[in-house]
């Protein structure tokens, strides 16, 4: 079987598994890039000719050659993601018994530096909420509506930790105003109920009851209508929310930190873990399938670590040793 044909079948299997459109596109682009390199440099087109050395050579090639799009060297994290896409493909062809012997067993993904990404503090949060004012001052009703919408968006991101795509996809039917719960379409085509605090829900309620009808230009609302609207009454898009956070970055003057929906998510996780919420509850709140990803956010809660370290500092061990220095037995001579 040709490698290109195997890739086509692999992509179809991802679609059957309800992989996201973005995920499928990423697999397709990176695997086609790999097979193009394989054909040009090794003349290999058949799956039976694929070897471990080719996988390792691909990673070495990525390390040595800049991106075709940006002309800049690929970061270690990007190279790791290219390798991961290839590894998933190799696991699949092995499970489907398309090749006689496994080739991925000794293929190791390159390590990459996990950089510290600073998150917001309480002052930053106040700045974000204060910077939500939007719109032409000569159109006060529209300005109030857009401002209320923005505050509801920022509040939900900070309070619930949901992802940008999840918030952009919210419909009116997904909001339970009595239980303070959102029905969120998670990764992997899963639906999950996500709780909202009273403080987080209040700006959303104000927007929906007092200002959304103005943006929609109608008092009639259908259950499948989008929650968040743009100034023309259409659904606020993924890109529209990204643009909002770019404007918030400029207005707040927050420096040295990413002003983005994902950093709101990071703030939610680190704050709740620092305040003592169960990691399992935080995991469910964020929609993580395992605790391993949640634990990465736990590593950012330095305040708790500082207090714990102060309590158990090795430099205090001497005092403790002196207090506990008692005789080993009832003798006093060797």
Brief rundown of the structure:
With 334 residues, the chain is mainly alpha-helical. The chain has helices at 3-16, 21-42, 52-64, 76-95, 122-130, 140-160, 164-168, 198-216, 238-252, 261-274, 279-286, 291-298, 302-311, 317-323, and strands at 175-176, 181-186, 190-195.
How would you describe the overall organization of this protein?
Keywords: DNA recombination, DNA-binding. The protein is mainly alpha-helical. The chain has two domains: 3-95, DNA polymerase, domain 1 (Orthogonal Bundle), CATH 1.10.150; 122-303, Intergrase catalytic core (hpI Integrase, Chain A). The protein contains 14 helices and three strands. It has helices spanning 3-16, 21-42, 52-64, 76-95, 122-130, 140-160, 164-168, 198-216, 238-252, 261-274, 279-286, 291-298, 302-311, 317-323, and strands at 175-176, 181-186, 190-195. It has a three-stranded antiparallel β-sheet with strand order 1-2-3, with helices on one face. The longest helix is centred in the N-terminal third of the chain and has 22 residues, at 21-42. The N and C termini lie far apart (81 Å).
């Amino acid at each position: 079987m040709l490698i290109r044909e195997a890739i086509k079948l692999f992509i179809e299997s991802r679609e059957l598994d309800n992989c996201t459109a973005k995920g499928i596109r990423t697999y397709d682009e990176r695997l086609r890039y790999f097979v193009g390199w394989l054909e040009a440099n090794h003349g290999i087109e058949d799956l039976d000719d694929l070897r471990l050395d080719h996988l390792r050579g691909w990673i070495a090639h990525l390390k040595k050659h800049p991106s075709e799009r940006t002309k800049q060297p690929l970061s270690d994290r990007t190279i790791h993601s290219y390798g991961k896409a290839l590894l998933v493909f190799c696991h699949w062809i092995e499970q489907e018994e398309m090749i006689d012997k496994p080739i991925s067993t000794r293929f190791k993904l390159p390590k990459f530096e996990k950089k510290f990404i600073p998150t917001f503090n309480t002052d930053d949060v106040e700045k974000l909420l204060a910077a939500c004012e939007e719109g032409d001052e000569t159109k006060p009703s529209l300005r109030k509506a857009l401002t209320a919408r923005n505050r509801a968006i920022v509040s939900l991101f900070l309070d619930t930790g949901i992802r940008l795509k999840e918030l952009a996809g919210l419909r009116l039917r997904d909001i339970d105003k009595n239980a303070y719960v959102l029905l969120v379409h998670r990764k992997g085509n899963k639906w999950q109920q996500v709780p909202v605090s009273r403080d987080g829900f209040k700006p959303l309620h104000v927007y929906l009851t007092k200002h959304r009808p103005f943006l929609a230009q109608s008092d009639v609302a259908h259950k499948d209508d989008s929650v968040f609207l743009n100034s023309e009454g259409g659904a606020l898009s993924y890109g529209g929310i990204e643009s909002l956070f770019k404007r918030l970055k400029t207005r707040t003057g927050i420096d040295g930190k990413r002003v983005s929906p994902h950093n709101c998510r990071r703030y939610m996780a680190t704050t709740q873990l620092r305040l003592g919420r169960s990691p399992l509850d935080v995991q469910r709140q964020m929609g993580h399938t395992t605790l391993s990803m949640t634990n990465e956010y736990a590593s950012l809660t330095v305040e708790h670590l500082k207090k714990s370290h102060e309590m158990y500092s090795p430099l205090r061990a001497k005092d403790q040793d002196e207090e506990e220095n008692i005789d080993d037995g009832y003798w006093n001579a060797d």
